[in-house]
Amino acid sequence: MADKLQQIRRRIRSVESTEKITSAMKLVSNARLRQTTNRLHFVQRNLNSVSDRLAGLLAAADSEELAQDFFRAKPGRTMAIVLSSSKGLCGNFNTVIFQTMDRLAEEASEPPLLLPVGIKVREHLRIEEMPYEDTGILGLDEFTYHDAEDLARRALDGFRKGECARAELLYTKYLNAIYSKPDRLVLLPFDKGALEQAAGKSVPLRTEIHSPEEAEQFREYALVQYLALLIYEKVCETLVCEHSARRTAMNNANDNANDMISKLSLSYNRARQAAITNEIIEIISGSEAQRR
After folding, report:
1. What average pLDDT does the segment 52-75 reach?
2. Using omega within 30 degrees of 0 as the cis cutoff, is the peptide bond preceding 189 cis?
3. What total of structural domains would you count in the chain?
């Protein structure tokens, strides 16, 4: 009986240590969730207007080369930029992204060109032995706007050179503080209707261009910045979903630890009471035997 009591005490101490860790991680996730939510709101308030103006500029472009290069769908493989976390303990956040990526690979007639962003998606691709092109970006927390510009240029170059006929971004869409879902955003080719719809929300962008060279440079700049703004916003949104999922997972783990401590404490008290009862019975039995 003493061994059983000691074993239960060990388990209670172990679960209490786990509960302290999950409580601390929940507090950290709450703080990071507030930071990333404020960052997402800032991006949506300030950068979306710029994105809409660039969309209007691209929609109004009368260049035959632009229309032929970026508005026309072509047969071929798909380039997919996949966003995942660099750490675990966030529930099924990464799993649903992996499932979306696997479905993309199954639907495609040719193996997609995968550009992973985050350590977890790299590990998944290595385990599944799926080829990918390293982006050098280890996680969403370290993601900067310059990284978004690099990915935008990579997508544009691949689309121009014929390496891919379609460029997509696989990210997690934020619904509320509890729910999120994986989603796919088509980066290339452009949907002219969607560009015109976005352009209708903002004041047209006016520029002074004096030569064909300046027009070409500005067009290239507008293409890169428009795609970079789209990518950066979705990275911020995915980061909010990651910390929200981690907070929910740590909250559930904390509740489960408290429930387990309650059950173990009840089992310990019952075992202790049984041991005391056995000792009392042994004492009474011994006393009765001496009287006889």
Report:
1. 66
2. yes
3. 1
